[in-house]
Amino acid sequence: MRIKFWSEKSFSTAFLVLFLILTCGVFMNLKIFTDRIMRKKIPGSSIIYIPEGKYLKYVTFGHSSLLADLIYIWAIQYYGDYTIPDSYLHLEHIFSIIAELDPLYFDPIDVGAFIAVYEAGDLDLGIKILDMGLEKNPKEWFFPYQAAHYLQFMRKDHERAQEYYKKTMSIEGYPPIVRRLYADSIFKATDYQRAMKEWLEIYETAEDMRIKQVASNHLYNIKATIDTEKLQEAIAKYKEKFGRFPSNLSKLVYAGFLDSIPKDMDDKDYLYDSQKGEVKPPTIPWKR
């Protein structure tokens, strides 16, 4: 029985060694083949044939992080070559390999999303790469925060940005500024009442006086926006009826378009230009 045991073990070892040799041979031949293909004919062809990360893990013998490092360094060099016209077509593939080989490798996800957004001009791909990072690292708030930042400030998609800010705030350790950006995205989505509620809560819970002042300024801006829009609507109705702008805002009350003329949050009158029919706050919110 002992002799049989060693024979089976020797056979298994020999089979494994043979399998690895054949595997290496296949990869070497594949590399030789792809290297012979002219770059002008198929730019970036070498990337196309890199296997998915889940398959590469099997041939790293526990050193998948090292391979992730090597591919990342290579990818930085590759995407630094702007002469390859179709390189961005393989962006998701190459960075998904790195994420699979080393899920906790933070930088490649951030850099991959950056390349997608700023170099490839594909914000949706950048968001997809960040989503991949969050899937691998569900306790890392940076990925949804960065996605929200891109959506809010580059695409002006404030509704979708709110979703990612909420994801960020559901993860422990997120910075306080996230909530303020979330409140700002609500305002920019023109949901004024909800924005007012969010900023009021930030104001009431803030311990830092600077943050309180920031929240107060935003509250001022929200009220001023609501009031001036209401006044502009009444002015438009007045002109439609009388064919001219009112000489002063009190005319809007006399004509029955408003019950009263609102004041700003500091109890000051709004400024009115009767020649242009325009209303604006008496104070710049950020200079109060």
Features:
288 residues; mainly alpha; two-stranded antiparallel ribbon; 66% helix
3D structure, described in words:
- This protein is mainly alpha-helical and 288 residues long.
- It has a domain at 45-137.
- The protein is built from 13 helices and two strands; from the N terminus they run αααααααααααααββ.
- The chain has helices at residues 2-36, 45-48, 53-56, 64-79, 91-101, 106-119, 123-136, 142-155, 158-169, 177-188, 192-205, 209-242, 250-254; strands at 271-273, 278-280.
- The protein has a two-stranded antiparallel sheet.
- Strand 1 and strand 2 form a beta hairpin.
- Helix 4 runs antiparallel to helix 5 (91-101), helix 5 packs antiparallel against helix 6 (106-119) and helix 8 packs antiparallel against helix 9.
- Residues 1-6 and 37-43 have low confidence and may be disordered.
What percent of residues adopt helix (DSSP H or I)?
Answer: 55-70%
Structural class: mainly alpha
Uncertain spans: 1-6, 37-43
Would you report the number of β strands? 2
Largest sheet: 2 strands, antiparallel
